[in-house]
């Protein structure tokens, strides 16, 4: 999926701008200040409660209509499944019939990681078909994001990245350079809408699975 007017097959990443602090995000939905807004305090409280110590926690970034995440939540009820998505229209559709072990949130994943996810809490992170953009503030797969994600990973955690955009595959390889390659996590039979489109049109999808980097608490 690409921003309107961008060709995913020819898009190239713009020059990245490093943040003074990876935890202060400038981007969509107030960036890292999102959960400081009074209107979002109730959502923040729900996410904090959902991320409290307990069953293994998975984070899916870019849930779209939620087909895949909700399929996983029903298949593995002994896990908690947290999904984030920026587009309100698709998230409202996905939120209907959500099981108790799943929570869907409209947010920038970077803001959620910076403000709400405890260190060492995530056992799995699925980053699915992020959107290319010519605005570097809106790009997810950056070294700053990898630095923000690493402390949130539990020992043995797996980060799965999937994209059908060559330029984003290039970004992913650079962002997670130095992270160990591991076996991909198990996935259920329910595919995301973008996975279905790629399978139907025979688009190439690049998938990478990484473990925590050596510098992370759960790293090797």
Task: Give the arrangement of secondary structure elements.
Layout: H1 41-50, E1 57-61, H2 67-75, E2 80-85, H3 88-94, E3 102-106, H4 109-115, E4 122-128, H5 143-149, E5 153-163, H6 166-175, H7 193-201, E6 206-210
Parallel strand pairs: 1-2, 1-4, 2-3, 4-5
Antiparallel strand pairs: 5-6
What's the number of extended β-strand segments?
6
Task: Show unreliable segments.
Answer: none
Q: Distance N terminus to C terminus?
A: 34 Å
* Strand order of the biggest β-sheet: 3-2-1-4-5-6
Helix content: 25-40%
Radius of gyration: 16 Å
What is the N-to-C order of secondary-structure elements (H for helix, E for strand)?
A: HEHEHEHEHEHHE
Q: What portion of the residues fall into strands of 2 or more residues?
A: 15-25%
What average pLDDT do the residues reach? 87
Number of helices: 7
- State the major sheet: 6 strands, mixed
Oligomer: single chain
Q: What's the overall geometry? A: globular
How would you characterize this protein structure?
- Helix content is 27%, strand content 18%.
- It is of the alpha/beta class and 220 residues long.
- A 6-stranded mixed β-sheet has the order 3-2-1-4-5-6, sandwiched between helices.
- The termini are far apart.
- The relative contact order is 0.18.
């Amino acid at each position: 999926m690409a921003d309107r007017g961008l060709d995913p097959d020819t898009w190239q990443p713009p020059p990245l701008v490093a943040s003074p602090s990876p935890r202060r995000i400038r981007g969509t939905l107030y960036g890292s200040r999102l959960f400081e807004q009074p209107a979002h305090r109730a959502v923040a409280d729900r996410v904090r409660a959902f991320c409290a110590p307990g069953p293994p926690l998975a984070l899916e970034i870019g849930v779209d209509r939620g087909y895949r995440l909700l399929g996983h939540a029903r298949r593995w009820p002994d896990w908690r499944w947290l999904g984030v998505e920026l587009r309100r229209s698709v998230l409202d559709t996905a939120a209907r019939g959500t099981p108790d072990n799943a929570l869907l949130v409209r947010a920038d994943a970077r803001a959620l990681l910076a403000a709400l996810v405890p260190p060492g809490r995530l056992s799995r992170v699925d980053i699915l078909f992020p959107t290319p953009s010519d605005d570097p503030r809106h790009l997810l797969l950056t070294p700053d994001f990898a630095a923000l994600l690493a402390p949130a990973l539990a020992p043995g955690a797996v980060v799965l990245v999937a994209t059908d955009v060559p330029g984003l595959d290039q970004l992913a390889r650079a962002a997670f350079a130095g992270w160990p390659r591991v076996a991909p996590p198990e996935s259920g039979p329910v595919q995301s809408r973008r996975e279905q489109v790629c399978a139907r049109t025979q688009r190439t999808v690049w998938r990478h699975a990484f473990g925590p980097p050596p510098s992370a608490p759960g790293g090797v």
